[in-house]
């Protein structure tokens, strides 16, 4: 179950990171509230995950999911560049996340 919590924590990290773009410096109430809720939820789920997953692995996977997700959202929805080097770099992060999952017990 710890990997499920960690995956959900990473997905919420994507939500809050993208949400920051819409808070306008936390001056817009609804986007700000949703962003803060996603932040709290993400850290809470990470805390649940590290009960069973080593903190170094969990943190690397959590930030990796967030980084990959935000980069993809940026390219697909926000018009950020989609060049080969960017996509290749994202794939390297995904390989790193998969590698950590494979070598981590539980």
Offer a few descriptive terms.
single chain; flat; 106 residues; 4 helices; mainly alpha
User: How many runs of DSSP E, i.e. beta strands?
Assistant: 0
Portion in strands: under 5%
Give me the secondary-structure category.
mainly alpha
Radius of gyration: 15 Å
Characterize the structure shown.
The chain is flat, with a radius of gyration of 15 Å. It has one domain. The mean pLDDT is 96. Helix 1 runs antiparallel to helix 2 and helix 1 crosses helix 3. It is 81% helix and 0% strand. It is mainly α.
Summarize the structure.
By secondary structure, this protein is mainly α. The chain is built from four helices and no strands. The radius of gyration is 15 Å and the shape is flat.
SSE map:
Elements (H helix, E strand, L loop, with lengths): L1 H22 L5 H21 L5 H23 L6 H20 L3
Helix pairs in contact: 1-2, 1-3, 3-4
